[in-house]
Amino acid sequence: MKRGIREALLKKRNSIKPEEKKKKESAIRKRLFASVDFKKAKSILFYASFKSEVDTIKCIQHAVKLKKMIALPGIDREKKELRLYKIKDISELESGYMGIMEPRAAKSREKGLKNIEVAIIPGAGFDKNGNRIGYGFGYYDKLLSKSEKPVTTIALAFEEQIVSNHADLFGIFL
Questions:
Q1: Which CATH superfamily is domain 2-173 in?
Q2: Is 0.85 surpassed by the pTM of this model?
Q3: Of 3, 60, 150, 163, which one has the greatest count of Cβ atoms within 10 A?
Q4: What are the tens digits of pLDDT across the range 112-146?
């Protein structure tokens, strides 16, 4: 059932026309940059956007200009978990798992979640209470569940990915 929900949400997101997507992404960036959590944070976990996700590259570049410490995940395929690496510029990213851009793995740049104040997380869909339908691998759920301290999470999403409540996530599929 979850798989069907995920597919329905992704189909809606994929159907956004390019011109409309650009406008929506601009509005999402403005809202993110104006948020108190973003302004206060000295360290932010981002993800590199993939396919029809909200473009995060401009967000990352802006945060770098603001001198925030930026980390992005790389997938440890052996342990099936995310490792976080500090970056100073998007040029430090390379194609990784499934073609998703990741930082080049280097022990010296590895950061734990304890070093992160705000985590920008991806997902297929969300409800207005912050519940999320991920992509089915559980990487972010596993990462965030191991946090020793509260981490503010922010999802960058199009309105097509948002439902009013968690029950509506399941209603999409019915």
A1: NagB/RpiA/CoA transferase-like (3.40.50.10420)
A2: yes
A3: 60
A4: 899 899 999 999 998 888 888 888 788 998 998 88
